Every structure is written in structure tokens, then in C-alpha cells.
Amino acid sequence: MPRDARILALANQKGGVAKTTTTLNLGVALKDMGARVLAIDLDPQSNLSMSQGIDVEGLGHGMYHVLTGATPIADIIDVREIDIAPAGIELAGAELALSAAIGRERSLERALRPVRDLYDYILLDTPPSLGLLTINAMVAAEGVIVPVQCEYLSLRGLAQLRGTLQQVRENLNPAVDIVGILPTMYDGRTVHCREAVQMLEESFGDRVYRTRIGKTIRFAEAPVEGTSVIRYEPQGQAARWYRQLAREVAASPVGVALPGGLREAAA
Ligand SMILES: Nc1ncnc2c1ncn2[C@@H]1O[C@H](COP(=O)(O)OP(=O)(O)O)[C@@H](O)[C@H]1O
Ligand SMILES: [Mg+2]
User: Fold this and answer.
1) HSE-CB of 183 using CA atoms within 13 angstroms
2) Helix (H/G/I), strand (E/B), else coil: 30
3) 15 CB under 6 A from ligand 1?
4) What is the pLDDT of residue 254?
5) CA-to-CA dists, residue 110 to 67, 85, 130, 180, angstroms
6) What is the rounded CA–CA span in Å between residue 223 and residue 35?
7) pLDDT along the chain (267 residues), means of 10
């Protein structure tokens, strides 16, 4: 029997920390390792969809229609560098549309069921908030990857994210936890940046990935061409960083919240 996909949410309520960039480039790097990858755009700003050249204005049905139960997810998947379930601006209305629905926090989990065994990884790109869309991602996921900018101030926001995750664990998905912290826009030449990563390692230990994603303009250039940095400049530094991250993600145990054997037994 085919195994179900590992579902990983990319979350951080701060904007501009590289959630979308990481969703796409980690996805492409995992695909290059032979995995079947689906990435889901849960942000009404549609950055993930647009970064793959999808015309979101002309989008008939997107994640809004999937979450509200109008369309099966298989019907909206667009095959690009990786498979993408796109979103348009109407997704901004999903929180309101779902607010009175029973099981509103499980809409995504439910929607993913029919495609779970078709992929090895399903990556969830979330908006910069801890609202219902991000909670849906935390409920559907086995783990959360948190990209963080190497700044003291961005570390403080992690307490709030952990608080939300704790509530999700208590009420909705006991197994979900942070599986990896990814330092992004890393500049090892500044003391502040090195200290910020040190503080992360003090709180999160080996859940901080060894990979550091440095700063380069390539990350802004590639989406304009509708490609990942991995296709844009395959031999460049940016591509290498994300290939290294993909190897770390692939090597990490499935779900750290439950020990391996337990998780298999629970499945
Ligand atoms: N490592 C990086 N170095 C420089 N710019 C980056 C890097 N990662 C992402 N960016 C740029 O920063 C902006 C925000 O990234 P994005 O992935 O959209 O963040 P988020 O999804 O968390 O809001 C984008 O313009 C992106 O191209
Ligand atoms: Mg984004």
C-alpha cells in the first residue's frame, strides 16, 4: 500500500521571513531527489501561485473553493515545477465563510485526504497570521517548519507561535510540533545574526536545521521569471542551500512529537 505523504506546514506569523520562498524551493529540491511533491497556497496574497507563473486573477477555482467544500482539491492542482494548489484573493474570505462551519479547523485536513497517498510531501504555505488558515495547516500537518529571520525581534514572535501550536495540540492535533527552525537571510559576518542563531539553538536544540539560508538577490529575481532559484540558477549558492535543506528534511525522523514506533502504531 502506498504510504501517505508527509504533510509539513511552513509557518511564522511574521511576513517576509521566506515561508513562500522555502515552500517552493524546498519542494523543488525534494522533487529533484525523486519525491512527489504538492505545495498548497494558503495565503490570499497568492505569492506561491504567482511565483510559479500562475495567473491568479484568471483562476476559476482555488483553495477557497476547496476549503469551503465546493471543489475537490484534485480539480485545482496545477502541474508546474512541482504540483501547486493555487489560491486567489477570494481566499481572504475563507475565515468568514468557515467561521460558522462545524469542523472549520479541519477543512484542510479533510480536503487533503483524497490526495494524501499520491504524494511523498505536501507542503503548506501559510499567511502571515495565526488565524484560521494557519490553524487549518497546523491541524492537517504532522510538523511545522518555521523560517526565521536572524534578528532578535523575529525570535520573540516564536513564543506566540508556540502558544498557538500548544492549543492546537491540546484540542485538535496532539501529534503536531515544530520539526525544524530554518534561519533565513543569514549573514554570518554580523555578530547580531550569529547571536540570534545561537539563541535559537539554546531554545530549540537540534531542531534548528544545520542549513542556513543566506541573503541573495536571486530569491527576488527568480519569481519574476516564474521559477524556483533551483531552476533559475541551478549551480548557484541559493540552489545549493535549498538542496542541503531538502536532504536534512528528508533525513529527519517522521514526526518528532511521537517516538518513531509509537507513531507507526498510531497510524
Ligand atoms: N534568503 C533570502 N535572501 C534575500 N531575499 C530573500 C530571501 N528569501 C526570501 N527573500 C525575499 O524576501 C521577500 C519575502 O520572502 P517570502 O518568501 O515571500 O516571505 P513570506 O512568505 O514569509 O512572507 C521576497 O521578496 C523574497 O524574494
Ligand atoms: Mg508568503
Assistant:
1) 25
2) helix
3) yes
4) 60
5) 9, 15, 20, 25
6) 22
7) 89 97 98 98 98 95 98 98 98 95 97 98 98 98 96 86 97 97 95 94 95 97 96 97 98 56 37
The finding on whether 234 has its CB within 6 A of some atom of ligand 1 is no
From 219, 224, 230, the mutation candidate for ligand 1 (largest count of ligand atoms within 8 A of CB) is 219
Nearest to 37 by CA among 2, 5, 11: 5
* Ligand 1 touching residue 18 (CB < 6 A): yes
Residues 6+ apart with CB under 8 A from 108: 40, 42, 67, 124, 136, 137, 139, 140
Question: Does the CB atom of residue 21 touch ligand 1 within 6 A?
Answer: yes
DSSP state letter for 76: T
| Residue 16 CA, ligand 2 centroid: distance in Å | 7
Distance from the alpha carbon of residue 18 to the mean position of ligand 2, in angstroms? 7
What pLDDT is attached to residue 151? 84
Which residue ranges make up each domain of the chain? Answer: 6-147+217-254
Per-residue model confidence (pLDDT) at position 263: 38
Residue 149 CB–ligand 1 contact under 6 Å: no
Residue 198 to residue 203: CA distance in whole angstroms: 9
In whole angstroms, what is the distance from residue 25 CA to residue 133 CA?
22
Those residues whose beta carbon sits under 5 angstroms from the ion ligand 2 are 19-20, 47
What's the one-letter identity of residue 43?
D
Q: Tell me the Cα Rg of the chain.
A: 17
Architecture of domain 6-147+217-254: 3-Layer(aba) Sandwich (3.40)
* Three-class secondary structure of residue 195 per DSSP: helix
Asked if residue 125 lies in contact with residue 41, where contact means CB atoms within 8 angstroms, the answer is yes
